[in-house]
Amino acid sequence: MPRAGEIWLAEIPFTSGAASKIRPVLVLWEDAADVVVAAVTKSEPRSPTDCALQDWSAEGLVAASTVRLSRLDCVEQSLLRRRLGALSSADAEQVQAIWRHRLQLRF
Can you tell me the distance from the alpha carbon of 81 to that of 60, in angstroms, rounded to the nearest whole number? Predict the structure, then answer.
């Protein structure tokens, strides 16, 4: 069972539905049979809502990585393939701070 703050490999369907790709994701919260996840990428941060992970290796990732809090998906838990690890307390605090200060509903 996935928990918030864990990093998993997930099968993320393309928006067209034609295919999917296995990608690392950060679980943000669980909602019944679904989870809301943020994309994890090897790319450098490019916006104020991106969070560079300092402890990426200990968290189960193979390269320096960035959590993109602007790239969220809601996926069925059945699409989570393998748990890689969990955020360190320092990285978790940084992700939470960016979420609190940078993400807002704008309607």
Answer: 14
Amino acid symbol at 61: L
Domain ranges of the chain: 6-102
Q: Are 86 and 4 in contact (CB under 8 A)?
A: no
Q: 6-102 has which fold?
A: SH3 type barrels. (2.30.30)
Q: What is the pTM of this model?
A: 0.93
> Containing H/E element for 101?
helix 89-102
pLDDT, tens digit, 9 for 90 and up, residues 73-91 = 999 999 999 999 999 999 9
Closest CA to 11 of 19, 20, 2: 20
Is the separation of the CB atoms in 58 and 101 below 8 Å? no
Furthest-apart CA pair in the chain: how many Å? 39
Q: Which stretch of DSSP H or E encloses residue 9?
A: strand 6-13
Q: What are phi and psi of 23, to 5 degrees?
A: -140, 150
